[in-house]
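Worked example 2:
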Amino acid sequence: MTTVKQCIDQKTNTIFSVRSSDSVEAALILMRDNRVRSILVIDDEELVGIVSQGDCAIKVLLPHNSPKQTVVSKIMTAKPLTVTLSNSLEECMAIMVHKHIRHLPVLEKNKVVGVISVGDIVKNIIEHQDNQIKFLETYIKGHGA
């Protein structure tokens, strides 16, 4: 069972964040420039929310509000669900599926240490399956010849 820590240790794990008082435009630019779909909202080193591209599109662009004039605090998900380094990826996936979310901030001693995404979990599952296939191929070739 892979833990969040094992997964985080394999990533570059740069944490992209804005302040709750920043504009939605600033959040969108950060997401675009770093090719991520959500970013954390951190004020004074404390996680206060998370905002996604979907939040920006549905809550700002569709109602024709200005991304330059709208602050992130108006559209973010406040007090997002979080996990710790000791959680398993299976637990993370269960949370994501049950709550219909794609990203989980990772906290350790109330400090953000990373983010786990659905993509991270899928990548881990594929790598695990690939290792199992290689093991079975080796086993079959070694014992079937």
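The CA atoms of residues 12 and 132 lie 25 Å apart. Residues 118-144 form the longest helix (27 residues).
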